Amino acid sequence: MEFDLENPLTNFDDFHVSSSVPTFIPSFFLVESDHMPTETYIKTLEASDLATSIRREAICSISQFSCKFSSFLSYLAVNYLDRFLSSQGLPQPETWVLRLVAISCVSLAAKMNKLEFELTHLQGDGGYMFEAQTIKRMEYVILGALKWRMRSITPFSFISFFISLFKLKDPPLMDVLKARAVEIILEAQNDIKLLEFKPSIIAATALVCASHELFPSQFPSFRKAISYCPYVNKENMLNCYNWIIDMGWRSNKAEDMVSQQFSSSERDMLKRRKTNDYGKNHTVHLSQVQHC
Predict the structure, then answer these.
(1) Element (H or E) spanning 135, and its range?
(2) Which of 40, 37, 39, 9 is CA-nearest to residue 22?
(3) What is the full DSSP assignment across 57-117?
(4) CATH dotted code for 155-290
(5) Higher per-residue confidence, 256 vs 26
(6) Assign residue 41 a region: left if phi > 0, alpha if psi is -120 to 50, beta otherwise?
(7) Rounded distance, CA 167 to CA 225, Å?
(8) Which of 33, 84, 169, 283 is a good FRET partner for 107, with 20 to 30 A between their CA atoms?
(9) Contacts 24+ apart (CB under 8 A), 204-208
(10) In which band, very low, low, confident or very high, does the pLDDT at 273 lie, cut at 50, 70 and 90?
């Protein structure tokens, strides 16, 4: 069965699905930590410029190898990379080693998505060309390090669940909110600070940020809906929110997204929904998130 980052389970027949939100979502909260790198790995990255540069070079290679695929495949490959390096330790900063690990992570992610590809085409002309057997051996090393947990639980696994808490009745509103949250998650992955937070916290925070950018009049109710969720640690969500704000992302990206996905009449309707006391201030004060 083709792997889907939003629905990473292997057998849907074992679970009851109500509306658009599967009832197995709570189990994701219980096991999501199994799909994260260790705290030691994160501290090493934060304390060492060399470690950070090694990770950055490997991610650049993943971006190069996966450029013909979707951003979601690249996201999955980087997830494999971080979990592998977390388990095995950071290698020596030798380009060929990092490229071998990177191409193997991309190959595994492509196989999980049942994509047809040629390893020679994947590698391009970057200087190092690995034989198929060499990549296959590295794939098995990665599989062992990850304990064959390749159906990664990521922030995308929680997006639909959290959106369902908002009780939105307008499908277009849900679509644009989800699209903006997904964009935030994809853009944020390469920052090492993101590794500190559970996937569910990242998903919740991305939706909170997206809702404030797109629909500030409904932001308080969205914020309250997520903060009342028993699976969400409010303090961690606040820390994650502060980090995203510190990254300095601007809401003009959200405006561009609205322009791309809606007609002029629909955009006018959305603008009317945004005219309230939040309209002049695009930064949410910490107390607004904390006291919810």
Answers:
(1) helix 132-145
(2) 9
(3) HHHHHHHHHTTTS-HHHHHHHHHHHHHHHHHH-PPPS-HHHHHHHHHHHHHHHHHHTT---
(4) 1.10.472
(5) 26
(6) alpha
(7) 9
(8) 33
(9) 204/158, 204/162, 204/229, 204/232, 204/237, 205/237, 205/240, 205/241, 205/244, 206/155, 206/159, 206/181, 206/182, 206/244, 207/159, 207/162, 207/163, 207/177, 207/181, 208/237, 208/241, 208/289
(10) very low
CA distance 238 to 257: 25
Instruction: Return all residues near 154 (Cβ < 8 A) that are at least 6 apart.
Output: 5, 8, 35, 75, 76, 79, 199
Boundaries of every domain in the chain: 38-145, 155-290
The distance from CA 182 to its chain's CA centroid, rounded to whole angstroms, is 7
Is 38-145 in CATH node 1.10.1740?
A: no
Tell me what the pLDDT averaged over the chain comes to: 80
User: Any idea what the Cα angle at residue 261 is, between residues 258 and 262, rounded to 5°?
Assistant: 80
For range 28-34, the mean pLDDT:
88
Residue 248: per-residue pLDDT? 63
Tens-digit pLDDT profile for residues 136-151: 999 999 999 999 999 9
